[in-house]
Amino acid sequence: MHRVNLAIIGGGLVGASLALALQGAARARGWQICLIEPFAPGDGYQPSYDARSTALSYGSQQIYQRLGLWSQIAQRAEPITQIHVSDRGRFAAARLSAQDEGVPALGYVVENAWLGQCLWQALDRQVVSWRSPAQVTAMQALADGYRLSLDDESTLDCDLAILADGGRSGLREQLGIGVQHREYGQSALIANVSAQEAHRGQAFERFTEDGPMALLPLPDSRCALVWTRSSADAERLRALDEGRFLDELQQAFGYRLGALHQVGARHLYPLALIEAQEQVRPHLVVLGNAAHSLHPIAGQGYNLSLRDTLALAATLLDSRAALGDFTTLQAYLQRQRADQQLTVGFSDQVTRLFSTSAPLLAAGRSLGLLGLDVLPPAKRWFARQAMGLGTRPT
Q: Distance between CA atoms of 358 and 347, rounded to whole angstroms?
């Protein structure tokens, strides 16, 4: 039987970021942190045309700057200097620029493999231990923490368990934590594409009668595509040969980057809004996609989870109570409630508004985009949401 102070179930980007945010104070306080992850981190970063990527908001960049990691991440982070929002077949469009907002970039696009590598290398193995590859099969609540049963038949006790094992968390269900689940009836087709013209740091949000799409700038002149369609149509698009797929993508996106001439591996992800009905219990926190999983088109999911992570770390370090104290964990949730409600609501409403082909709503959407481009207060508000600064004072 082994015991640690903090067990993080899920050593992905959220779990590793929490470990990084806590490790300095943990070293001083004598805390031991254990990351439990089914997939062992790679031995080194390997560039790949098909790598999955994450859009980090300006606010998230500031978080990693404070954690001392940004200079490393920035080596392969592509700045988003402009965001172009348009509605196919309609005149209205909105443009956001980093220069107008007084920031070096509205956000950055980073390959997940590179971000993970930067995080894992920054962890102090004297404070943060790994159980990987390993999986927690059961969790038992104790008076002073949790007992975790692992798939190698070992057990691990902890003062505080962090459940960060993803949106389809089986442990969340096992613990009887319900979820609010709203299906969008859509799937996101994810792929990397190359275009004839350089993206010059531009990100594109394009809304069509068939669903929204985003094209985000990547290093090496690539773009990350997130194309939302009905689940059946997304399956059809994935099955097309490269030429026919690029033809349909070109028709939907247009020629703002010239001809699209290469697409990598295509992956589909069914889309739903998932919110855990409980995020804290005594000695337990639900974090990341296990707490809330959002539609990707607004680019808010990981950035909200990172803000949750930093708020949790700050609340734990500010508290004088024992690790896992329920009042402390409730204080964390109260601290983040407004941010979560605003971000989840913003993401859901943008998804619904820009996924409809109803004529009246589509016309209102077009007027909204036009107003966004000509009304500075509205544009400023929208830009702050996109930059992950929505609940911060101006």
A: 20
Angle at 292 between CA 290 and CA 294, to 5 degrees: 125
Question: Which ranges constitute the DSSP H helices of 38-128?
Answer: 58-66, 70-73, 98-101, 112-122
Contacts with 117 (C-beta within 8 Å, 6 or more apart), sequence order: 41, 42, 44, 45
DSSP 14: H
Burial label, 329 (beta-carbon count in 10 A; 0-12, 13-18, 19+): buried
| Mean per-residue pLDDT, 117-137 | 95
CA 371/CA 56 separation, integer angstroms: 26
Q: What is the pLDDT of residues 329-362, one digit of tens each?
A: 999 999 999 999 888 887 777 666 655 555 444 4
Q: Record the tokens describing residue 380, joined without a space.
A: 């400023």
Number of domains in the chain: 1
| Within-domain flag for 390 | no
User: pTM of this prediction?
Assistant: 0.89
Token representation of residue 95: 């443009």
What gap in Å lies between CA 308 and CA 291, rounded to an integer?
10
Structure-token pair, residue 280: 């804290």
CA 75 vs. chain centroid, Å, equals: 20
Q: Which residue has the tokens 């009887």?
A: 176
Contacts of residue 380, Cβ cutoff 8 Å, sequence gap at least 6: 101
**What's the one-letter identity of residue 160?**
L
Angle, to 10 degrees, between the axis of helix 301-318 and the axis of helix 58-66?
Answer: 40
| 26: containing domain | 2-351
Q: Quick check: is 378 in a domain?
A: no
Question: Which CATH number does the domain housing residue 105 bear?
Answer: 3.50.50.60
Does residue 366 sit within a domain?
A: no
Q: Is residue 299 part of a domain?
A: yes
The pLDDT confidence band at residue 183, using thresholds 50, 70 and 90, is confident
pLDDT for the residue numbered 42:
64
pLDDT score of 390 more than 60: no
Q: How far apart are CA 109 and CA 221, in angstroms?
A: 12
**Listed residue (82, 83, 94, 100) closest to 367, CA to CA:** 94
Widest distance between CA atoms in the chain: 66
